[in-house]
Structures are given as structure tokens and as C-alpha cells.
Write a structure and sequence with these properties.
By secondary structure, the chain is an alpha+beta fold. Helix content is 51%, strand content 20%. It folds into two domains: 46 residues, no CATH class; 141 residues, Alpha-Beta Plaits (2-Layer Sandwich), CATH 3.30.70. Strands 4-5-3-8 form a four-stranded antiparallel beta sheet, sandwiched between helices. It has a two-stranded antiparallel ribbon with strand order 1-2.
């Protein structure tokens, strides 16, 4: 007698290979031979793969160390915000932060302390911004903050407040305290079409501020 054909994707050992290439256990023979059950299983797996892809995409835009966006994610947000501001005539301001004293933290307290300091700074920045704003870690000890529906004066005021908060909190590691501050560059949106140009302008303003301290 010839063996009877099995349902889509089934295997006589009671397992099938999923769309992701992983084994999927069948509950019983009814599940193997029930086309509707197989369709539902495939639908569930497709949905799981979609959610996994979305999670991977989100992870690609976030910094691996801090709760901030990484440079790629922040630039993407910046590009979308620029288009929105241009289209609806909405003001926005960009703050560029370079930490003061971070090298000393790394050198005297170690790299683990430096990582903890970066996390602390990112959490401070996020806690002091609105839901519509964005924080990104651009690399090393440099961060950027985007404030929508805000002008140059608001950006400068926010930079002053954040700089004061950084200096007041400092950084404590294993009972040792190290000074930690920040220099901010502030640039308002002025019809920029390239996010890297806007970032470069804010970066230049930050260095003017840092050298003048």
C-alpha cells in the first residue's frame, strides 16, 4: 500500500520545519491532516516573524548601552522632523552635547564606570525632555537632543538647565565622586534639508562654547 500524503509542511516524525527553519511540533495526527489547523499555524508563525522583524528593526535604531537612540536612529528621526517642520512651518531646535570630565571618569574609575556614567547622562536627558522630543547618543560621550515646536531661546534655556543638572549631580562610582559636566551647542531649524548639516552646525556651536569656558 502506498503511503498517504501528509498535510502541508508535515512530517511523519511529528515535526515540521517552520518558516524560520526551526522545528515545529505537531500536537497530534489530526493537526497534521487538518488543512485549517495548518493554515492557522502558518498564520501564527508569519505574525511571529513579523513581530521579530519589527523588534530587530527597532533594536537597530537604539544605542546598545544607553536608553537613547543611536546615531542612525536619531538621524532618521531628525530627517522626518525636518520634513514635518518644513511642511507645517513648525519651529524646532537641536542641542549638541559633549561631556566634560568623561575622560577623567574613564581613566580614574575604569571603563565600567564610564559606561555607567553614559547611562546616567542619557537617563537624565530623557527625564528632562517632553514626549515629543528625542535623545540620541551619536558616539563616545556625545549626545544630541531634538526639541520640536521650540525656538532658539527655549533651546538655550534647556541647555543651561541640563548643564546645571549635570554639574550638580556629578558622578559617583563605588563611593568615589567625579566631576561631570557638559558643553552644549544650540542651533534652530532654518530650513535644513540635510540632517548631517544641521548636526554639524550644532557641533560647531558646541565647540565654540567649550573653548570659551
Amino acid at each position: 500500500m502506498r503511503p498517504q500524503p501528509t498535510a502541508l509542511g508535515s512530517h511523519r516524525a511529528g515535526h515540521v520545519e517552520s518558516l524560520a527553519g526551526e522545528p515545529f511540533s505537531l500536537v497530534n495526527d489530526a493537526a497534521v491532516t487538518d488543512p485549517q489547523a495548518e493554515i492557522e499555524r502558518l498564520r501564527a508563525e508569519v505574525e511571529a516573524l513579523r513581530l521579530r522583524a519589527e523588534a530587530a528593526e527597532a533594536a537597530a535604531d537604539h544605542d546598545v548601552l544607553t536608553p537613547a537612540l543611536n546615531r542612525r536612529g536619531f538621524v532618521a528621526v531628525l530627517r522626518s522632523a525636518m520634513a514635518f517642520c518644513q511642511r507645517h512651518d513648525v519651529p524646532a531646535v537641536l542641542l549638541y552635547l559633549d561631556l566634560d570630565g568623561f575622560k577623567s571618569v574613564n581613566d580614574t574609575l575604569g571603563h565600567a564606570a564610564g559606561d555607567a556614567a553614559l547611562v546616567q547622562v542619557a537617563e537624565l536627558l530623557r527625564a528632562n525632555l517632553r514626549e515629543s522630543d528625542a535623545v540620541g547618543r551619536l558616539g563616545g560621550d556625545e549626545f544630541a537632543l531634538l526639541m520640536l515646536n521650540a525656538g532658539l531661546d527655549e533651546g538655550r534655556d534647556k541647555a543651561r538647565r541640563l548643564a546645571a543638572a549635570l554639574e550638580a549631580d556629578g558622578f559617583v562610582w563605588a563611593g568615589e565622586q567625579a566631576p561631570l559636566g557638559g558643553s552644549f551647542g544650540v542651533r534652530a531649524f532654518a530650513g535644513h534639508t540635510d540632517p548631517e548639516v544641521w548636526l554639524a552646525e550644532a557641533d560647531a556651536a558646541m565647540w565654540v562654547r567649550k573653548k570659551g569656558r
